[in-house]
Design brief:
It contains ten helices and 18 strands. By secondary structure, the chain is an alpha+beta fold. It folds into two domains: 236 residues, P-loop containing nucleotide triphosphate hydrolases (Rossmann fold, 3-Layer(aba) Sandwich), CATH 3.40.50; 92 residues, OB fold (Dihydrolipoamide Acetyltransferase, E2P) (Beta Barrel). A six-stranded mixed beta sheet has the order 6-7-8-3-9-10, with helices on both faces. Helix 4 crosses helix 5.
């Protein structure tokens, strides 16, 4: 069964100052309804430009954007019904009044005539994001996580069909971030709202998105489920933007007992197994990075460096001689003769 689409772009291009290396080029994208679509790429790859095209905030130089199969007009002074159905949340809280209370900020987008309706909608939004206790506080006095919850509550207050999130968790503390991500997933599940999420943090995208779009220099270079792109990336670029990994030349790979058929080898830290086998202790622990319930070890041999996860804390201090085995690796680049 084919998924119902809510947003589409057909060969959309948007450049700035006549520079083709800016913005996006010839992008064709299909966004399924009621799913979370993540957009990932390095800084300057065109992620935010694509989001603003999909929301109608900017006009493409060429190509078309469609909402429910009809052309999406560019936002102007007079908002169209399509624009009310697409809500945007950025990390800078630019549309919020820092001096006004949370209650007043939430009520700004609602009609003032029907007081009972306004009270009902604001109360629902407060409860939806678990922020009722903040209702009388000035927005500017809130923490980063609280501000983002209020901003998302305001975006959802009129039940949009699409919620666009541009780096929404960038200013949110780690202990607050997970709860906010859970709330968004629940809203998608219960309301059927479509979410398009731009983030520089691969962990957010891997845990939240149903579909990932990888963008490089303004073009979509790979797409698929988070699991597919993580486990079997087709491109070195995809591996680098999704994973903290070790990138090796074919010669460096041979030091790791990998006989590569291609020019570049990528090894994920979770696929590097460290042990104390006496016959194989040819690697040295150069750094130990404490991560809480595990450590990330930086090990080196013959000027080749690998990252490895270690769950037996304090077992391998700096300077230790260890054995390394690699359970899985990925090959990219030109084929070797």
């Amino acid at each position: 069964m084919t998924e119902e689409l809510i947003l589409e772009t057909i060969t959309v291009t948007k450049n700035f100052f006549g520079d083709k290396s800016s913005g996006v080029n010839n992008i064709t994208l299909f966004v399924p309804k009621g799913k979370i679509t993540g957009i990932v790429g390095e800084s300057g790859s065109g992620k935010t430009t694509l989001l603003r095209l999909l929301s109608g905030h900017i006009k493409p130089d060429a190509g078309d954007v469609f909402f429910h199969g009809k052309p999406l007009p560019v936002r102007g002074h007079n908002l169209q019904p399509e624009h009310a159905a697409i809500a945007m949340v950025s990390q800078d809280n630019a549309d919020m009044d820092m001096q006004a209370t949370v209650w007043d900020n939430l009520g700004r987008s609602l009609p003032a005539e029907d007081v009972n309706y306004k009270i009902q909608k604001i109360t629902q939004a407060l409860n939806l994001l678990g922020i009722d206790e903040l209702r009388e506080l000035p927005f500017g006095k809130l923490s980063g996580g609280e501000k983002q919850r209020v901003t998302i509550a305001r975006a959802l207050i009129n039940r949009p069909e699409v919620l666009m999130l541009d780096e929404p968790f960038n200013q949110v503390d780690a202990n607050y971030r997970e709860g906010l991500q859970h709330d968004i997933r629940q809203i998608v599940k219960e309301w059927g709202v479509t979410v398009i999420l731009v983030s520089h943090d691969p962990a957010e995208l891997l845990s939240m998105a149903d579909e990932l779009i990888v963008i490089k220099e303004g073009e979509i270079v790979e797409h698929g489920s988070p699991e597919k792109l993580y486990q079997s990336p087709k491109l070195l670029y995809t591996a680098n933007v999704l994973v903290s990994c070790s990138e090796l030349t074919a010669a460096e790979a041979r030091v790791c007992n990998i006989k590569s058929k291609r020019g570049t080898v990528v090894v994920y830290a979770e696929h590097v197994q460290v042990s104390s086998k006496p016959l194989g202790n040819k690697w040295q622990v150069k750094q130990v990075l404490y991560k809480g319930f595990y450590e990330e070890l930086i090990v080196e041999r013959d000027e080749v460096t690998l990252r490895a996860f270690n769950f037996a804390l304090n077992k391998y201090p700096v300077g230790s001689k260890v054995s390394v085995s690699i359970k899985k690796y990925h090959e990219f680049g030109k084929w070797l003769g």
